[in-house]
Amino acid sequence: MSRILFIFLIFAGLACTDKENPVIMNVIPEPSEFNENDNQDSTFYYLALGDSYTIGESVEENERFPVQLVTQLKAEGFGMQPAKIVARTGWTTDELAAAIENENLKESYNLVTLLIGVNNQYRGRSADDYRSEFRNNLQTAIKYAGNKAQNVIVISIPDYGVTPFGQNLNPEKIAKEIDKYNAINFQETQQANARYVEITAISREALNNEMLVASDGLHPSGLMYRRWVDKIISEAKEILENQK
Q1: Rounded to whole angstroms, how far apart are CA atoms 166 and 218?
Q2: Which residue among 118, 162, 168, 170 is least crowded, i.e. fewest CB within 10 A of its CB?
Q3: Could you read off the pLDDT of 72-129 as tens digits, one per residue?
Q4: Where are the beta strands (DSSP E) in 156-237?
Q5: What is the pTM of this model?
Q6: Residue whose C-alpha is closest to residue 114's, from 150, 152, 82, 151
């Protein structure tokens, strides 16, 4: 091949790359890259339990916080399998419990996250019911974490009252009840000796930052989920480091 032709092909390839794959900062790999057979060295398994906030309602799959967490852990050098997500929009504590029973799950996972309760509040269920059902959810999470409470991260419930959807309801009442629910799940987490990450303060920034809200006007955007991951990552790394 002549030198002139070789140089031409290089520039032609770069031109094609620029058009088809524009450079984007902080690009998150597409979900297809998380095939369980892609990386035979992957050794850590992650189970994410929750509702719409865990399944990532109204955002792309690669923007869900469990997927972003796996991506970040991989970037930190941890061999990760794709996140196993057991979550659905609208689930309450009892519905999550019932769904877990019907899932084909591994006996244990290296890391488990739990975020549940907003739909209990939205449906007007009592705080006492939430406490007992959340306690059951937490014990289930611990069981799937190999009965090691320190391998479980409970995530606080975000405040949807600050979103455009919530502003049309009663945002003050929502905030008060979310705080009450979070006080409960924090107490139960402390008693169980599991880990706790508070993201409610971040969620409330959405009142003055529309970029933190998804297109549906209710759920977090991928950017907000990234902020959550920034808080969760240190706890997740410590959990996995202790299992190396």
Answers
A1: 7
A2: 168
A3: 999 999 999 999 999 999 999 999 999 999 999 999 999 999 999 999 999 999 999 9
A4: 195-197
A5: 0.83
A6: 152
